[in-house]
Amino acid sequence: MIRxxxxxxxxxxxxxxxxxxxxxxxxxLFQAGELPxxxxxxxxxxxxxxxxxxxxTPKDQITSTHRGHGHMIAKGLEYKGMFAELYARAxxxxxxxxxxxxxxxQDLGALGAxxxxxxxxPIATGAALGLQLKGEKHVAxxxxxxxxxxxxxxxxxxxxxxxxxxxxxxxxxxxxFAESTPRATHxxxxxxxxxxxxxxxxxxxxxxxDPQAVxxxxxxxxxxxxxxxxxxxxxxxxxxxLGHYVGDPGTAYGHDKEVGKWLKRDPLITFAETLKxxxxxxxxxxxxxxxxxxxxxxxxxxxxxxxxxxxxxxxMTDIYASV
Amino acid sequence: MREILYREAxxxxxxxxxxxDDSVFLLGEDIAEFxxxxxxxxxxxxxxxxERVRNTPISEQGIIGAALGAALVGMRPVxxxxxxxxxxxAMDQIVNQVAKVRYMFGGKxxxxxxxxxxxGAGRSSAAQHAQSLEAWFVHVPGLKVVMPxxxxxxxxxxxxxxxxxxxxxxIEHKLLYLERGIVPEExxxxxxxVAEVKKEGKDLTIVATSSMVGKSLxxxxxxxxEGVRCEVIDPRTLFPLDTETILASVRKTGRLLITHEAVQxxxxxxxxxxxxxxxxxxxxxxxxxxxxxxxxxxxxxxxLESYVIPDKDDVIAGVRGMLETV
Amino acid sequence: MATPLPMPKLGLTMEEGTIxxxxxxxxxxxxxxxxxxxxxxxxxxxxxxxxxGGLLLKTLAGEGDVVPCGxxxxxxxxxxxxxxxxxxxxxxxxxxxxxxAPEAPTTxxxxxxxxxxxxxxxxxxxxxxxRIFASPAARRVARELGxxxxxxxxxxxxxxxxxxxxRAAAASGLPAAPxxxxxxxxxxxxxxxxxxMRKIIADRMLSSWSQVPRITMxxxxxxxxxxxxxxxSRQAWENDLGVKVSINDLILFYTARAVRRCPAVxxxxxDNALEQMQDVNIGVAVAVEQGLMVPVIRGADQKSIDxxxxxxxxxxxxxxxGALGLDALEGGTFTVSNLGAYxxxxxxxxxxxxxxxxxxxxxxxxxxxxxxxxxxARTTAFxxxxxxxxxxxxAPAAEFLSTLKEMLEHPKVMPA
Lengths: 323, 326, 416
Known about the structure:
The structure holds 3 protein chains of 3 kinds. By secondary structure, chain A is an alpha/beta fold. Chain A contains 11 helices and 7 strands.
């Protein structure tokens, strides 16, 4: 059993705050008309990204989803480059060419948010394959949603990983809605983790609102992967607190009714309480974390605003390494 | 110089590159013990082991995704899609992932991978195993597309493709696998993006790809007996395209015929026609002609298949039509 | 207050304009800025806008009228306004509907006679569009070589003018194109419906060009002796025969005799049969204002020089006056086209189908030629034959040309 230490706990808490504040500010900026495109907010699911990534080093790889800000922050990407990307600036992680859905940093093992549902799963399998071939003890983690579990890519990707015993962990963030479609109307299984059996790998359900539970389950799966015993499918039951995208009230498909009971389990509140009870986190520390995060964020937003837009010529670069 | 089969040239290329670079590995359906559906990986399993010659499940998007993920962490995978027709089930990975990550990620992405596949008709393989779909991939920025027509090109270009830092879609032809051609013993890497003038001529330029190169050369020989001297150009790489070689020839001959095994509409030939119409307009002495497959799915019946797929007589007829005088 | 509309002055050099078409009738309402008529200058066609809104009270000049710039051509105003103070525009004679071809002589390749009575089938053919089909390469080469490709007949599929046609034309010395615009699409200097004589010429040129495989050969003929003979004989001819004999008359005279001596060029294609013509009827290509005509000197090989001279002159004058009877245009078996008067050195004429050969005669001028190892000045002309290679082999055509050359280079003082 992998125990959550104080240091890791505080890291997870701060990471969740970073994610939450990033999303909240992004929504404000988006609604103020400062950000082009559209946003998918991760608010409510922070415990999953933070609990899993607490185990990862920059040499470990992740693939993510259209709702990817949380994974990127948890994997170590910084506010400056992320905001600059949302602002479509040349200083963004993708030089303004990727945007919200494609933020990535290969140096940090972040193989990208992904605009295609399920698209990252086979890529994580491939990254795990590469790591295995290189003989490195690193792992690849793929985050995806309940909707993606119905994509062919999910089945192809996890089957290959299981067959080859690749150092991969598949983390399904089951937030109950495939965009607008409630889980019960898009799959017959109650637990997506059950599907793991069909591919010959362990499948575990975990409370995605509980960072400690996620941390412990992920820790075992990652350790297993590092030891060459193959992949695990983790299903984290969670809930996005907002609609599918910023601007979707979630009223058309019952999300607004469903979300109420989940709000009481907001991991930022419950985990802070847990840590306070353990005397690991004081009110002052919480205020300090928020102050530091907010300060860093406002600096990053200013940096992004002042950053240059890409040159028109930049449209034609990075298509090929060389032609 | 020695002659070897086109499929042997493919094996040699992979063999040499795997020996040269540990990060090169193969994955695909039936490529290990079975040696590949068209025997293009025979002997490699015993030499390099199951780690580097990996049989995959029948999971085309899984294969391509796995290749991409491995490339992203520094490997140089060579993924085989048994038939180009099967690329359709892997299109997300090819088009939305492989082709895009470098750009989407602002240039920071290793995407050195090769997708080997084969296409073309001629074996009564019917509609799902005989298509020529190269235009799909040329259309997608981020991919390089190579289509060798000879054993020598197959080897030299595959070696270049494996060494290339960009994703290369490498399209072989099932009928060419058993064609023999001169391939040098010594190492030869043929650069991507360089066309070859397979035959010089002055009266008309034929730009041909893959199987149509050989057919065009036969056509050109026959036409030469009538005093018509065709220049036959094999672009070898469809993208990046060696436009200068093509345009120089068109400017010389004033007439351009493009031939490929894919159906005509929205085919790669249309791109070449547009190129010549714009860049060599003042040199054209006749409308640009295309000799392509009829616009049908590939039929099973040998009689129908040979009817819809262009042959050297179609090329000859096309040439005659352009040179006809009244 | 009625507003007059004057003929606009569209450029410094514009002095008058031709009214092409009134878009509005008298009494029709017109808005300010609306296009009211089309005019043509020597350079462009132009849409004229109404200077005011109201009714087109009166037009002062009709379609086709040529009106000096500044002269009123219409009155715009309100219903009932008096227009009597505006008189008719002092129009010149109606403009010709067909603008003159720029620079080019009335015919660049005078070769064909109009068919007097077009066969019924011709009427059923779709009207020609007037579009000239030339490949981009042909257009470029024409531009580079200064050739007016519009005058050429194409040898490509569907009669398209191809590069080779332009190069051949350049080699045979076709007239240069008018100065082209430096850039942009090719300018059209004027447009004339292809009808009447032009249609006949077009159809027959096309049919000849598209149906007749030609053999072309030329020879440089030394006319020094012929000129000397004419000089020596001039007095005698004028006094005794009552005619002024031109070089062309002498060429017609000798050509007829050469044709008689080489009947292989005096043939035509009948129904799957090569028909040997009985008579030598020489067609003489004559440029007329709107095309060309080929009146015929019948039995020319039997006629004396004065008869040839008299008849050719009469036929040419009648042709130019439009007074030729149909009988004068019928029955030719061999045509002579002489562009020497235009200074053309050599050219390739189109066979006047169903005849099987045509003679092209270039300008007689002093040229440096080698004679017995020395370069000397002689008056020469390039004379060529284009023959229907289906009927006339190369050797007989060459024999004819060499016979004619021999005759022209060694003329008789008093030919008969």
